[in-house]
Amino acid sequence: MRRWLKTLYDKQYFPAIAPLIDTPQDRQISAQWAAWMKQQWQDHGLKDLKQQRNLMTEVRQALKQQLGENHIALEAMNFTRDEWIEINLSISDTVATRNEQQSLIEQPNAIVDRAKMLLDSRDWVEVAAGLAVVTGRRCTELLQTAEFIYESPYTVWFTGALKRRQEERTLRFEIPTLAPAQQVIAALSKLRRTVNTVGLDLETINRKFSPPVAKACDRHFAELVPQRAGRGNLYTHLFRTIYARIATHWYAPPTVADIEYMAAIQGHFLIQNEQDPTLRRSLASTRHYNDYKIGDGRGNINGRQGVRLNDPGVQILKIFQQGVPELEPEPLMPEEESPMLPPNKRQLSPKRDRSTLWLYRDERDRWLQLLQPFVPKASQPDQMSALLAWIEQSLPENHPSFTPQIPHPSIPRPPTPAKTLEQSANAFITTLQPLRDPEAIRSLCQQELAELEQTYDSQDYLPIYEGAIATAIRSGQLPLIDQQTAERLSYAKQGVSYVQRTHYALRFLADPEHEVELTTAPVSTPTPISKPITPQRDTLQTVPAPTLTVQPQIAVTPQSDQPSFSSSTTPTLDHKLEVLTHALTQLVQLIQTERTIAQPSSVPAPSNGQTQPGSIQPESLDTQEATSEQSAKTPPSSTTTPKRRSRGTSAEAEARIIKAIDAMMAYNNAPHRTHIQKWEISLSALKRLTKSYQGVIQRVLDAHEAEIQEHHQLHGLKSRHNVRHGHAGVNIEQVIQWEPD
Predict the structure, then answer these.
(1) Burial 648-683 (b: 16+ CB within 10 A, else e)
(2) Is the pLDDT of residue 341 over 70?
(3) CB-hemisphere CA count at 13 Å for 327?
């Protein structure tokens, strides 16, 4: 009940009529108060009967709850028979007009896919919007009264329906789900944990929570669902008809009228006979869900039903199972949606007579699972034929039931069970082994992912493939070659230098859009200096000479973070260059110090607490190179300093990366930012955004690991979150606005 009406009802109307009894005088008083209440409605600008209809319903419901069904106030607080006829005629005209302006749903698959994505959101508003689409339940039901009990992979038993007119018996009926039933049940549980409606009445819940859910529906589905005639936006209740239409198109047996199927899944079970007064209300309610029809992509209605009844796990609702003939899968038109799993091509079989084979109900699911590998996506009779042929061919020749079989050309061969993920991973490694180009490896990974994602989730196949690749690396089957098969990362921790090589296949399987950084190796190969450099003059003994120590090289395998020292491993070319550059920098510092001591009169003596010239230790390799080039007047003749890409000093690069991280966090923290739009703070994303060296980015990520992890947990961002941006063709540079300098 709206607030102003509740105030009138609680403060004035109800206290006046509550003590009235069934006497002529009290009936007159009740009529006077009813007239007073109707006048208040008109004073609030609600003068038409159509506008007053909901107000009358709310007041009468409150009276029934507080005073019972037979209180005399209910006689006066009502419309006359002629007024009700006028109201119902107006409603019928409105519904008829809407039915003359039906809209077509051209992309039912896209609507359901987006709804399933919202079910995994951390935002309760998006979860509620997704549940409204895949279950067709009202927002208030989802937030407080609805209860789903698993029945089959795509059906649940539902209790908690509203608008049941105070029935003594709780209504319980089976409904289909447009998403897997387990996912729907988990999403409802998450929604209840997030939104606390304990102690709130239904009207308050509807008034408080329905508007944000309606906005979420409009935000996520506006481009997929045409607006209903006379409405400026989408709203939650509208998705009751969206759900009913798609569910009928997918799951309704062709022999069942669509209006009967929609009435069953919406819970309209009050239709009994033509003399029952509830008949018109139930039929009118059903007509409200005819705003949309499924389109065929050419502007016409696609009236097909049960297009997914042959998909794995899909069952007909129990209320319609009796007398339903077995369905043959029909060929899909080019513009129609594909089934839940991609169909395998099969030859058409000649028409054959069918028979009934009885089996125990509790073994039905086991039979379906057993039949699935035999000619996937075929009809059950064809699958049974393939299973029978396989059994007969497996029998020994001396078996009494053995009969040599000549397979009919139209019957598929006895199939080999589908390859396991382990077998697929081993086959992938065999194909991967000869590849020596990053882009060729990327192309192979993209093809493999396209096949895997049709059947499996990433959390199912990715660990198996990563483990198989790691095993192949350890056995030498997959060599790690810099810039050919492996990505090289050098970094230091606690004074120890690390070299980590990661096979490109591991990178591309986790992120197909991972950017490959190729560097040009210098021609010369200088010998690393392994002996400390110390000055030879006695005058230099007062200045502590820096000591150069060559750190052992450490190789890190993809399967372990623990470094493994190898004394027999020859230092790589890049590592030698780093050592040489560091030695040259120290040599320049010693030369500068020698000149300072030799010419004390030309250089003022530093005061206490000041740093002596030439004693400032460089912060990074980039600053060491700058010092070598600017200060060394007589560099060694036998050695040349390799050229490196100029991206500023390491400190500047780190500052730029930190600024980019702040920009990504600010973007994710923006109000009304959906979970899908957010970005995970990852190495590849920062590399695209900042164009910095991978090693510098990794160093910054390690330094701010706790802060970034907390941010990811706050927004529910997982390791493969950014993959969806790549699939959608969205680059981070197009989205994150920031100033690098």
Answers:
(1) ebbeebbebbebbbebbbebbeeeeeebbebbbbbb
(2) no
(3) 24
pLDDT given for residue 414 in this prediction: 42
Please write the tens of the pLDDT for every residue from 306-334.
Answer: 999 988 889 999 888 865 444 444 444 44
| pLDDT of 569 strictly over 90 | no
DSSP 517-528: ---PPPS--PPP
Same domain, 137 and 249: yes
Is the separation of the CB atoms in 266 and 240 below 8 Å?
A: yes
Residue 378 CA to residue 343 CA, distance in Å, equals: 8
N-terminal to C-terminal alpha carbon distance within the chain? 57
Q: What number of other Cβ atoms are within 10 A of residue 5's Cβ?
A: 20
Burial of 696 (0-12, 13-18, 19+ CB in 10 A): buried
Question: Cβ(396)–Cβ(327) under 8 Å?
Answer: no
Q: Evaluate whether residue 315 is within a structural domain.
A: no
Q: pTM of the prediction?
A: 0.40
Calpha distance 227→139 (Å, rounded): 19
Q: What range does the domain containing 12 cover? A: 3-79
Residue 156 has pLDDT above 70, yes or no: yes
C-alpha–C-alpha distance, residues 720 and 723, integer Å: 6
Domain count, the chain: 5
Looking only at the bridges linking them, the beta strands covering 496-503 and 103-105 are unpaired
Cα separation values, 395 from 5, 274, 404, Å: 80, 62, 10
CA 203 to chain centroid, in Å, comes to 32
370 lies in some domain: no
- DSSP per residue, 92-158: HHHHHHHHTT-EEES-HHHHHHHHHHHHT-S-HHHHHHHHHHHH---HHIIIII-EEEEEETTEEEE
Q: What is the pLDDT of residues 56-103, one digit of tens each?
A: 988 998 898 888 888 888 988 998 888 888 887 776 666 666 666 677
Residue 216 lies in a domain: yes
Q: Is 686 found in the same domain as 538?
A: no
Select the highest-mean-pLDDT range: 18-27, 197-206, 400-409, 573-582: 18-27
- The tokens describing 294, both together, are 């499924």
What's 619's DSSP letter?
S
Instruction: Go through the chain and tell me how many residues it has.
Output: 741
pLDDT tens track for 254-267: 998 888 888 888 87
Q: Which residue, 280, 243, 211, is CA-closest to 108?
A: 243
CATH number of the domain bearing residue 288: 1.10.443.30
CA distance 526 to 317: 77
Highest mean pLDDT among 173-177, 397-401, 491-495, 640-644: 173-177
Query: Would you say 554 and 571 are in contact if contact means Cβ atoms under 8 Å apart?
Result: no
